[in-house]
Write a structure and sequence with these properties.
With about 210 residues, chain A is α+β, with helices and mostly antiparallel strands. Helix content of chain A is about 30%, strand content about 30%. In chain A, a hairpin with a 5-residue loop joins β2 (about 105-110) and β3 (about 115-120). Chain A starts with 9 loop residues before the first helix and ends with a helix. Chain B has about 90 residues and is mainly alpha-helical. Chain B has helices at about 5-30, 35-55, 65-85. The chains are: A alpha+beta (about 210), B mainly alpha (about 90), C mainly alpha (about 800).
Chain lengths: ~210, ~90, ~800
């Protein structure tokens, strides 16, 4: 995960925690099963003078154990995933900033509360919830900010939403990409993310 | 066993399907609440389908496994319809 | 008439309906498509090997990535499995052929014809489809992707979907109805079980694909507005993109299990040959696949739509269902692993590929669990993490499993043994190349999919370069497979009749080993396999009686010409109204009509004889074969029409301002027409009753009444349409609401009308046959089956009428 933040943004932190949870569970489970497979494959290989194959199928109480263990791990994973749904639910904070985003072939139009707009440059204040209202002017796009672990489809005729918050100011070039094939310019729908201090934001918002 | 079907049963089914159509038209024109009207009409349509499947297609006389095989896509379809409408929410 | 030389070779392959021949046709054709898809992949990997590359332009790259996906999934992976279904299922169950041999040939020729259309698209102006294999809307509509190329691809895809639907009806009927005596379900081999599971899923998943692409092609060829309506941007709430998502993924998710399950069937079937003991948990595997994987596979599709703005609760329910589906897979994998315990394992090539498939499935499957979380999906969606995941399961598990099948059953198909050293080398190099290619790319969650190039940031450059190296290693390893197959086929050492010591029936039955050198008409009956079956008992199949010779010799050129005509017609369609387009359509239509007429005439003269059927039919005993096939087919049509109606409801419910039905349609006329059609259902039922009583005159009378009523229905329909058109209710209406409503109305009602018309044409044929006394009390299957079809057409109208005219 991107490590250039001074303070880790909330969506990134939630994602990191969940990802590590799944990763460790996955490595343990996968490692165990693959290890078991390779162990049996080697242990029961045909050898000169080795024992013949046993008759009849293996007893299957093991399967019951598998179902119970898998079920528990998956249930726990699901629970963690549900608990992390804060990354998806748009917060109701009253000091949030809402920015309209229109995806088009092939760029991003960010329209700010004061009516100004910028192409391929998203500027937001630090420390406040940013809500993006997304729609498309033409075809299906998908706006994603990998370093913040947020992403949402951008659909013509519909408005979707995502939110994030970056605690500290900074400039992040090429932080925003399009993740849904949208024509020949798909690879070039890249935007920068600039996080400014509250003061700079206020100044910019009140300027004409 | 199937050949025991009397003609009169088929005539009754035929008349029922016609009555159901007329009932649908009446409902559409005289029931003002669209949700009630739509539900009633869907019920009528399903009843027509059930009658035709059971009697014209003899499904009621066929083995249970065939009936199951026919019900499976109906259930999948119900799932598709429910989720499609829910995704509009 | 026996011809010699090249013409007889051509004649054999063009007219064959024999399951082994068709299996071989599918095998080699699908491998060809695999090479084509692989070539596209190498082009893509070269372009992506370094940042900011310009080896391929964006347009060419987009075409390559789209066609790579479509060709590999639809023309390579599933057809390769179907090749084995064709070859092995009849042998494994002791049947002489599939239930409907000519339909089987038709499936193959449609598969090939559709593939030709798809590949042709590269060479027409504008090039091939370029919107991804997922064909999202509205990018794939004529507004954003005009041109004949994509239309050819999507029509080719429809032909393939029809091929698959017919094939699944065929295989399901075969397995349910044509097992030899003693072959109850408890004795059914694992590969055949999985063939049943796969074709069952195909039966219910592909109709939705057909519905989606028919709407798409309708927009492109007929000018309807399902995905292109100007109302999309001007009227809030219209969601054609979401409509596409739902239809496509309702098909798309079961599709990935359709692709995977045959490989699991192979693995379950062949493990015992290499461990010397039966598979562990056989019943668990069967039960968990039938009762959990299959139903749930239709209940997880919205995990492809987490980011589309659906309610969180819906996302979370699909999170749960997606996680739940990994549990039966866990049971299956553990069963495979436990099958090794206390065995005596021989590490031959097929077994190496089995181990490889299982390992790669475990890795890919765990990656899939990551993707089941809506929160994690916000990071991974549309990135190379997903690309890595699905290649692990689709290439790693599926291809390694199917390659194991090739090695394992090559001796059955050729009587010769492949080269073990080359096979082992093939495995090692493939496994290494595969993991170099797809392993590192799993960390690229910040690289979007389907980008033709990328900036030089972070790990992107080095990982892509490694992946490209891996891709070349992996692809060139397949040269070893090609060499092994070809060399073995012509020069391999004899393998003996049962080199693996398997108890499967496919090793001890089914006539000659089907090398192409044998002429199916004159091949020695039984061959050395047949001679063996009389002397060698099959130890665990003692209660199963083996038929003496299974090699059937029935041929027909009609499937080939029908497919040729259809293909010609659709080659011309995207170019209409240019002269060449029109010419192709006319020639194609003429060929189709001639073929259908000839097919009917063949039947009248009983030129095509179908071999004897099997005896184990529980729980479908008492049901004639064709009737069972018709029911199987109709159950898939339920999904087809149901998907179209679901699409209609979706469009209507997402829109405010839909025109009121009574303001457009003549309700009394529509009601009267409905009564007429329902009455024709009654007369058809009476026709069936008449012939069950043996009354041919009554049959003719009631059939004629049905024909009359059906014709009146169509006549009134056409006059309705002409009135609507002159009132301005057309798909070219300037009012976007009318345009959308008209698109839906004409399309659905038109499709139904086409079904009615087809029925009327068949009725003419049936009346002709009745006049010649062909139907009797004990033999009137065609009437029964047509009765089913006609009743189904009525049922569909019972839903269309209220939805379009009343509500």
């Amino acid at each position: 995960m991107y490590s250039g933040f001074l303070t880790v943004p909330p969506t990134t932190a939630t994602y990191d925690f969940l990802f590590n949870w799944y990763l460790i569970s996955g490595i343990i489970a996968g490692g165990f099963v693959i290890g078991l497979l390779l162990f049996f494959a080697v242990k029961y290989r045909a050898r000169e003078g080795g024992p013949p194959a046993a008759k009849g199928p293996e007893s299957l109480w093991v399967v019951v154990a598998v179902v119970l263990i898998m079920g528990s791990v998956l249930a726990a994973a699901g629970y963690q995933s549900f608990a992390s749904a804060t990354n998806i639910e748009i917060p109701a904070a009253s000091n949030s900033v809402t920015i309209r985003v229109t995806g088009f072939q092939w760029g991003w139009n960010f329209t700010y509360p004061n009516g100004h707009f910028a192409i391929d440059n998203l500027t937001v204040p630090a420390g406040r919830d940013i809500i993006l209202n997304l729609t498309s002017r033409d075809v299906y796009h998908e706006l994603g900010i990998p370093m913040l672990a947020v992403k949402e489809d951008v659909i013509p005729g519909k408005v979707t939403q995502l939110w994030f918050e970056v605690p500290d100011p900074g400039v992040y070039e090429d932080a925003i990409h399009c993740f849904q094939l949208c024509g020949v310019g798909h690879a070039f729908m890249i935007a920068n993310l600039t996080v400014v201090s509250q003061a700079s934001w206020d100044a910019w918002m009140s300027s004409g | 066993m199937v050949t025991q079907m009397r003609d009169s049963v088929l005539v009754v089914v035929w008349l029922y399907t016609i009555i159901a159509v007329l009932a649908e038209v009446y409902t559409a024109q005289h029931v003002s609440d669209t949700l009630t009207a739509a539900s009633a009409i869907v019920v009528f349509a399903l009843s027509q389908a059930a009658a035709i499947v059971a009697f014209y297609m003899d499904l009621k006389d066929e083995p249970g496994s065939l009936i199951l095989m026919v019900l499976i896509p109906v259930m999948f379809l119900a799932g598709l319809l429910i989720s499609v409408v829910a995704s509009l929410g | 008439m026996i011809r010699t030389g090249a013409t007889s070779w051509l004649q054999r392959w063009v007219t064959t309906t024999n399951h082994k021949d068709i299996g071989l046709l599918y095998l080699f054709t699908s491998l060809y498509f695999g090479m084509a898809g692989g070539a596209l992949a190498l082009l893509m990997r070269v372009q992506l090997s370094v940042p900011n590359n310009n080896f391929l332009s964006a347009l060419y790259y987009d075409q390559a990535v789209t066609m790579h996906g479509l060709i590999m999934i639809l023309w390579f992976l599933s057809p390769l499995a179907i090749a084995f279904f064709n070859y092995l299922v009849p042998l494994q169950i002791g049947a002489k052929d599939l239930a409907f041999p000519r339909l089987n040939a038709l499936s193959y020729w449609f598969f090939l014809g559709g593939g030709i259309l798809a590949i042709m698209s590269f060479f027409v102006p504008g090039g091939a489809a370029a919107s991804g294999w997922t064909t999202y809307q509205p990018l794939s509509s004529p507004s954003f992707q005009p041109g004949p190329g994509p239309t050819l691809v999507y029509i080719g895809l429809l032909l393939l979907a029809v091929s698959v639907t017919l094939g699944s009806v065929n295989i399901i009927t075969t397995i349910l109805w044509m097992r030899t005596r003693g072959m109850g379900f408890s004795k059914l081999p694992m590969f055949t079980w999985f063939a049943l599971f796969t074709t069952g899923a195909m039966l219910y998943a592909f109709p939705t694909l057909i519905a989606a692409f028919v709407l798409n092609v309708s927009d492109r060829l007929l000018g309807t507005a399902f995905f292109t309506s100007p109302a999309i941007l001007s009227v809030p709430g219209i969601d054609p993109s979401i409509l596409w998502d739902n239809l496509f993924w309702f098909f798309g998710h079961p599709e990935v299990y359709i692709v995977l399950l045959p490989a699991f069937g192979v693995i379950a079937n062949i493990i015992p040959s290499f461990t010397g003991r039966p598979i562990a948990g056989r019943n668990w595997i069967i039960i968990s696949t039938a009762l959990v994987v299959l139903p749930l596979s239709f209940g997880v599709w919205m995990h492809h739509m987490f980011l589309t703005g659906i309610p969180l609760s819906l996302q979370e329910s699909f999170d749960v269902s997606t996680e739940a589906i990994s549990i039966p897979f866990g049971i299956i994998i553990i069963s495979f692993i436990l099958s090794l315990v206390r065995g005596r394992i021989q590490f031959k090539t097929p077994f190496l590929f089995v181990i490889g498939a299982v390992v790669l499935f475990i890795i890919g499957g765990i990656m899939g669990v990551f993707l089941s979380s809506p929160v994690l999906d916000r990071e991974f969606n549309g990135s190379y993490f997903v690309v890595s995941h699905f290649h692990y399961v689709m290439v790693g598990a599926t291809i390694f499993g199917l390659i194991a099948a090739i090695y394992y059953w090559l001796p059955r198909m050729t009587g010769r043994m492949y080269n073990e050293k080359v096979g082992k080398a093939h495995f090692v190099i493939s496994f290494i190349g595969f993991n170099v290619l797809y392993g590192p790319m799993s960390i690229l969650s910040d690289m979007p999919r389907r980008v033709f190039t990328y900036p030089n940031t972070g790990d992107l450059g080095i990982v892509n370069e490694i992946a490209t190296v891996g891709s070349f290693i992996f692809v060139f390893a397949q040269v070893l497979l090609a060499y092994n197959v070809v060399h073995t086929w012509f020069r391999g050492p004899p393998s003996g009749p049962n080199p693996w010591g398997s108890s499967g029936l496919e090793w001890t039955t089914g006539g000659t080993v089907g090398a192409p050198a044998f002429d199916s008409e004159t091949a020695p009956r039984g061959g050395w396999i047949g001679q063996l079956s009389s002397s060698a008992p099959a130890p665990t199949q003692a209660s199963v009686q083996v038929p003496s010779d299974g090699h059937s010799g029935h041929t027909s050129v009609r499937p080939f010409t029908l497919s040729l005509g259809v293909m010609l017609f659709f080659i011309g369609a995207p170019f209409y109204p240019s002269t060449s387009g029109l010419a192709a359509m006319v020639v194609g239509a003429a060929v189709v009509l001639y073929t259908m007429f000839s097919w009917a005439r063949d039947d009248l003269r009983e030129k095509f004889s179908i071999p004897d059927e099997g005896e184990e039919r529980f729980p479908f005993s008492g049901l004639p074969k064709i009737k069972l096939g018709m029911w199987v087919f109709l159950s898939s049509e339920v999904i087809l029409f149901g998907s179209l109606i679901a699409a209609y409801l979706f469009i209507r419910e997402s829109v405010v301002g839909w025109p009121v039905a009574s303001s457009i349609h003549d309700i009394p006329l529509g009601t009267a027409n409905t009564i007429i059609l329902l009455s024709s259902g009654f007369t058809m039922a009476m026709a069936v009753i008449s012939i069950r009583r043996g009354n041919q005159r009554s049959l003719l009378l009631w059939l004629s009444a049905t024909f009359l009523l059906g014709s009146v229905f169509m006549g009134i329909k056409l006059s309705e349409w002409s009135n609507l058109a002159s009132a301005g209710f057309t798909i070219t209406s300037p009012n976007p609401m009318y345009q959308l409503a008209a698109s839906a109305y004409y399309f659905v009602v038109g499709l139904h009308g086409a079904h009615v018309t087809a029925g009327l044409i068949v009725m003419v044929y049936l009346m002709r046959k009745t006049l010649s006394g062909a139907y009797t009390k004990d033999s009137h299957g065609a009437i029964e089956n047509f009765g089913l079809y006609w009743a189904f057409v009525d049922i569909v109208w019972c839903f269309i009428f209220p939805l379009f005219y009343l509500l």
